[in-house]
Amino acid sequence: MATINDDEIAAAGLDRKVVKDIARRLENVARKAHKHRISIFGAPGGAQLRFEDLQVNAGDLILAEISEGSWSGGDGSTTAELGGLLRGEY
């Protein structure tokens, strides 16, 4: 279950219900993808659905390319600085 960060949502000026809904939907998609050995890969300008092909020594199969939305493929590191708000890598 997603952790909803209320202080950060307030600092961004967003509605908690909207953030919680997006997080819940992404969790459901991630759970379904994982069940089928699909990874969601964020990249500048889009995202990809990838499948690790264990039968050959090559890169993942690109199952779909998503050009909508805002995606990040960062390393996921975080820090609590600048007033104690949780922030991603910069």
Task: Give a short synopsis of this structure.
This protein has 90 residues and is an alpha+beta fold. It has 2 helices and 5 strands.
| Order of helical and strand elements | HHEEEEE
Helix content: 25-40%
Number of helices: 2
Please give the radius of gyration in angstroms: 16 Å
Structural class: alpha+beta
> In total, how many beta strands?
5
In one word, what is the shape? elongated
Arrangement of strands in the largest sheet: 1-2-3
Q: Which whole number gives the mean pLDDT?
A: 88
Assess the beta-strand content as a share of residues: 25-35%
Low-confidence stretches: none
Count of structural domains: 2
Describe it for me?
Strand 1 and strand 2 (46-51) form a beta hairpin. This protein has two domains: 1-35; 37-90, no CATH class. The chain has two helices and five strands. It has a three-stranded antiparallel beta sheet. Strands 4-5 form a two-stranded antiparallel ribbon. The protein is an alpha+beta fold and 90 residues long. It is elongated and about 50 Å long.
Secondary structure elements and pairings:
Blueprint lengths: L5 H7 L3 H20 L2 E6 L2 E6 L9 E6 L11 E4 L3 E4 L2
Antiparallel strand pairs: 1-2, 2-3, 4-5
What are the main properties of this structure?
90 residues; alpha+beta; 2 helices; elongated
